[in-house]
Amino acid sequence: MGVPNVGDQVPELKVTPDKHLPNRYAGASGDFNPIHIDPEFAKAVGLPNTILHGLYMMGLVARANTELAGGDPRALKRLSVQFRGMGAPEQEIVVTGAVKSVDGDRVVVDTVAAQGDNQTIRNAEAEVQL
């Protein structure tokens, strides 16, 4: 992909995390908060079930934006996100974005991660060097 124009949509990333992903991610991240790995605990504190780690969701936003640079993670120069909802395993996550600005080989993308109508991450801004 060449240098995009302001307003261009970036390629969607679609991922459906399986029910065991929070357990695997807890081991990888070191975050063993029981809201992520213990369904009974999660329900006891008012959640419908375990929820995905916010850092996992942020990682998907990062991954989607590096696709502008052929998937090279070194191209991601800056990433800021706003966590706005809880993600659930076994539900498709769709990461979308639109080019906000272009300055030479630097592209800023406004990005959203959502599960259906639940926008788990909004107002995310990624700066990618192409």
* Mean pLDDT figure: 95
Percent helix range: 10-25%
Spatial strand arrangement across the major sheet: 1-3-4-5-2
Instruction: Please count the helical segments.
Output: 4
Distance between the termini: 9 Å
Determine and state the CATH class: Alpha Beta
User: What is the oligomer described by this structure?
Assistant: single chain
Order of helices and strands: EHHHHEEEE
Quick one: how many beta strands? Answer: 5
- CATH topology label: Thiol Ester Dehydrase, Chain A
CATH architecture label name: Roll
What is the number of domains? Answer: 1
Global shape = elongated
Structural class: alpha+beta
Tell me about the largest β-sheet: 5 strands, antiparallel
For this structure, what is the CATH homologous superfamily?
Hotdog Thioesterase
**Which stretches are low in confidence, meaning pLDDT under 50 for 5 or more residues running?**
none
